[in-house]
Every structure is written in C-alpha cells, then in structure tokens.
Write a structure and sequence with these properties.
homodimer; 112 residues; mainly alpha; 5 helices
Chain lengths: 112, 112
DNA sequence: TTTAATGTTCGATGGTTAGCGAAATATAGA
DNA sequence: TCTATATTTCGCTAACCATCGAACATTAAA
C-alpha cells in the first residue's frame, strides 16, 4: 500500500468524533469482538450498537448516541468510506454498513 | 489509552510529508528493521538516513532529502513530538531523536 | 396520497493546518 | 569575539475541516 493511502486512513481517524464512530462500528455493529486495545477505549455510556451482527440502522443508532447533527454524522460516514475503512449501502430504509477488512489488515501491518 | 490520544497520534500521521518523516526515522534512523508493511512503502530515492543506529543529525538529513523548508520540517518534528511518537534532544550540535516505543506499542494494539 | 422517518446535499462560518521566508537563537570552531 | 552552521520562532497566507441548519430526496406506513 502506498504511503498516501496510509495518510488518508490516518486522516480519517484523526478526528475524535469520527474515530469514535469508527470504533463503534468496528466493535459493536459488525459483530467483531474487540481485541485488546479496543476494550480499553472508553466510549462512555452512550455506546449503543450492541446488536452483534446487526449493522442495521447504524446511522440512526449512532445519531442517537452522539451529540452531533445528522448532517455532520453523514459527513463523517462519507469520510470513513472515502478512506476505505467502511462500506455502506442502503437497503430500503436500512442503512447497512461493513468494516473493510482489507484496510484493517493494512493498518495492522503498518508497524509490523 | 484514551480515545483522544489515539486521534492525536493519527492526526500526526495524517499529513503525508509528516508520515514520510516519521517513517524515515522509524525505519532508518533508529536502527529498527522495518517489519512487513513498512518495507512496502516507497519513500523514493531521497531516502537518506541509512546509518543504522545513527540518529545524529536527523533533522539535517531529513531536510536534505525532502522538498520542504527547514521551518516546515521543524514544525513537523514538533507535531510528531507532541503526539508522543518521537522524542528529540539536542546534544551540542547534534540533533538526536528516538522513537517512543510505548506509543508504537499502543498503535500496534489499537486494532488488536 | 399525505405523513413521518431517514439520509444527503448545500452554503455559511469559525477554526485549524501546511507551508513559506525572515528574523532570532544557539553552538562550535577559527 | 566573530563567523558559519543548525534549529526555532514569528507572522503571514491560502487551503482545508468540522460543524450547523435548511432544504431536498427517498422510503414506509397510515
């Protein structure tokens, strides 16, 4: 992976609110059991997406537990998508989103 | 480690030039053999800090191989320090810099 | 078909950042 | 002490970013 790709990924994770959104998706929305390092991160009481395997209504759920406007949250989702960290699709009224495992792998390999 | 610390680290690595500087220090200046993932990153011909274990004159060397003003590079060093990624000290006229292993460890643990 | 809910897009605003050159500071050596 | 070299700080500018509310688009349900 090119250096510029890495900087794009890190830029997406450089905003604390956006990182929080990403962590919620990563940890709770996609059924991935957070490994060490993630468990330590405090998201606060507002953690919301506890449905394992349930990526439905990710957007709404995150809206409900964050103190940001919907438009801002929509923007953050876009940024996470642009960085290749997540993919989102709309099925009817369900906003379905996935973690992009390939990108996660690249991050893991970044410093060995 | 707090979420805000992680976003600060990622912010420091979100600028491509700064990431490049960090990678040079990480890979070449501190005698750390880059693991997989780093080896793949192309820094271009300008890679300069080939002296293993030699962290001396890191600033000057990096200035020589990057197309940025010295003041800008100084600024980037400061940012890397603020994020806790590196520490720098001046010994006489030698600018000595180290990787902060603790922070590296945190990054590695971030996604498991 | 109206209504309610869910997301997106737009334009504005205030704050932050990357970059430069010039001036300042620090150190080593002549 | 003077000079050359190395690094930092300062002041500036242009670009970028986070955020909002309003307006719009889409879909489900009443």
């Amino acid at each position: 992976m090119e250096l510029s790709n890495y900087s794009r990924i890190f830029k997406a994770l450089s905003n604390e609110q956006r990182l929080k959104i990403f962590m919620m998706i990563y940890r709770d929305c996609c059924g991935i059991k957070g490994p060490k390092g993630i468990a330590e991160i405090k998201l606060g009481d507002e953690s919301c997406c506890g449905v394992k395997g349930g990526i439905e209504k990710a957007f709404s759920k995150i809206c409900d537990c964050m103190d940001l406007s919907r438009s801002t949250i929509s923007h953050h989702f876009k940024e996470l998508q642009n960085a290749g960290l997540i993919t989102c699709e709309r099925e009817g009224q369900t906003f379905r989103c996935h973690i992009n495992e390939k990108t996660i792998k690249s991050i893991r390999e970044f410093l060995g």
